[in-house]
Amino acid sequence: VYAPPARPPPARAQFYGHNPNLKLPPDLFLLGCVFHIVEYQQSWGAERVSRWGEAIQRRGGEVEPVYCARVTHVLCETQRHGVVMQALRDAKRCVTAYWLSDAMLRRGVLPPWHALHLPSMYAARDRPARHHRAAISGWRDDERDRVTFCLEHIGAKLTPYMTRDNTVLICKRAEGNKYRRARDWGIPVVTAAWLTDLLLGNMSALSQIENAKYQQFNLTSPFRMDYSLVSHLMNAWKMPINITQESHERAKRSAAAACVAAGGRRAKRPRLQQLGGLVVSSAAEATHLVMDKLVRTCKLISSLVTVKHLLTPEWVLESQRLNKFADEAKHGLRDEAFNKMFKCDISEVLLCGEMRKKLFEGVTFFLTPCVKPSRGALTEMIELCGGKVEKNRRSYVSIQEMHNQKNYSYLVLTVPNDLHLVYYLLQSEKTLNVVCSTEVVLSAIMRQKLEVEEFLVKID
Question: Which domains does the chain have, with CATH numbers?
């Protein structure tokens, strides 16, 4: 019997950011990208969106206040906005703030690789998993954050514990106490693929929660997307972005922001004053910090909350030679060894804008007497980041009440010499996990993420 030859599988679509043949300056990786931003002004605030615009321009991109033919990217939350619908008809790239953040981290315009990068098809009131109570297990650090954001965007309620009332468990691996309990109690256990499908609009995932597709644990890429679900969003990525010499020159001009103030030991006061600048000693007033090399000082940590630019002394000399403030992008202070040592990326911290001032929002601190850095230096750092420092220690009951309302809303910073003052919080049967070394504040500012567990103080 003759059997016709099997058809080859369809070729996988090729998606592009910039034209692969282009060689872009590393600091201007958004060249050729023209953004129009919608929806976020209402949900995140106009001031924060303005900071995003500044970050885009410093990286070579442009921002159009009105949607027009020049726009290449629409930054949006959902597909339901009128401008987004028109942009999709016009084959524009529609992406979220998550994509922009990841593009900044990777320093490149890459096609979306995570479901959070694409605008949601759901309105807030219609999120598909709004009746689910979810728990998670096995996820750490950035992956844990992404799972949490995914759950938020599909409307599920995330619980830090797991009981029989939970309706789904999102596991990275088929192991752990929560996993075993879920199996015993008959609670569905799924991988992140279930979240990804729901985010991309595959509503059948709700009724097919036990599907073998969602039981493939230990995947190397747990957030892998099925692009066929969002072909209408990915069509625009089939053509690479090209840039003209004119757009290159325009981006270089707009990336050089005007200077308002400067800080740092080697900053030359007369030279800066001649240019209309001002040398200040307070980090709260500074917009630029000038240093010979990156050293983790209190001034650096505090300035990371406020300044827009971290510069070498050559910037001051070049500004004097030009008789105007020089392009900061050419004189940025960078040190990969410093970043590696402290597990941070200083240049990315500067791109966080006003968000830096909300890092400790809703967190109350108590500092024991002998803390290092000094009480004054730590208080400045905490308050610059929106936190609060109390002068008097709270009782165990009072701390427990705060802790029960929100984890890590109250933290005690101490050093070995002061442990006797906080022993009542460290006893094994009463441990509240609120006593930390001062490193929790320094590292949080340098990483722009409050990570408490790493710096908890324990006693044997």
Answer: 13-113+226-255 (3.40.50.10190), 124-224 (3.40.50.10190), 269-351 (3.40.50.10190), 357-455 (3.40.50.10190)
